[in-house]
């Protein structure tokens, strides 16, 4: 499986509920490597760019209101098959239908207020990474200190 990068957002509910540390911990525990990370407020323009496929859907006004309602944490993680690995860790869109052991299944009950976004394909990942990060914000590094930590 090839090394992939994928775009993750810890949505406003994750920030407001102080769950970012737990969610980032799960991603790191799985072995995914954080190569970019920042906090920002999603504007209406950014929301429309990110969720272009949903802009015309009936639920978009609520999605826009939610995703622009407070700061998010945006990050890129890297790993073998990272796009699908993260999607599997997230669970289903509706938290109530998400299996225990997934992020949405363990921390959420809502269909819309669902803690985390992850790119749904390698193509979406490339597009979303370019929306949220400039190339110089994405770091390339070896984990040479890992042996010392162990
Ligand atoms: P995301 O894009 O945020 O990672 O979530 P997803 O792939 O699991 O779900 P998607 O279908 O792409 O929907 C994007 C976000 O829109 C909200 N949503 N509300 N019927 C509804 O009320 C509805 N459907 C979707 C959710 O916040 C979902 O994550
Ligand atoms: Mg999606």
UniProtKB/TrEMBL annotation:
Q: Where in the cell is it found?
A: Cytoplasm
SUPFAM superfamilies in UniProt = Nucleoside diphosphate kinase, NDK
- Keyword Transferase annotated: yes
Short name of one Pfam family = NDK
**Cofactor(s) named in the record:** Mg(2+)
Q: Which UniProt keywords apply?
A: ATP-binding, Cytoplasm, Kinase, Magnesium, Metal-binding, Nucleotide metabolism, Nucleotide-binding, Phosphoprotein, Transferase
Query: InterPro entries of this UniProt entry?
Result: NDK-like_dom (IPR034907), NDK-like_dom_sf (IPR036850), Nucleoside_diP_kinase (IPR001564), Nucleoside_diP_kinase_AS (IPR023005)
Q: Which residues form the Nucleoside diphosphate kinase-like domain?
A: 3-140
EC number, as in UniProt? 2.7.4.6
| Primary location group | cytoplasm
Which residues does UniProt mark as catalytic? 117
Family classification: Belongs to the NDK family.
- What's the name of the protein? Nucleoside diphosphate kinase
Taxonomic lineage per UniProt? Bacteria, Pseudomonadati, Planctomycetota, Planctomycetia, Planctomycetales
């Amino acid at each position: 499986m090839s090394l992939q990068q994928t775009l993750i957002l810890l949505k406003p509910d994750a920030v407001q509920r102080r769950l970012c540390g737990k969610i980032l911990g799960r991603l790191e525990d799985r072995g995914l490597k954080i190569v970019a990370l920042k906090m920002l407020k999603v504007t209406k323009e950014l929301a429309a760019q990110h969720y272009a496929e949903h802009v015309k859907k009936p639920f978009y006004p609520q999605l826009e209101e939610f995703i622009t309602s407070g700061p998010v944490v945006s990050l890129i993680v890297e790993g073998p098959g990272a796009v699908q690995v993260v999607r599997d860790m997230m669970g289903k869109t509706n938290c109530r239908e998400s299996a225990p052991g997934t992020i949405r299944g363990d921390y959420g009950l809502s269909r819309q207020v669902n803690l985390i976004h992850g790119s749904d394909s390698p193509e979406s990942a490339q597009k979303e990474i370019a929306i949220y990060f400039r190339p110089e914000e994405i770091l390339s590094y070896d984990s040479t200190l890992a042996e010392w930590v162990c």
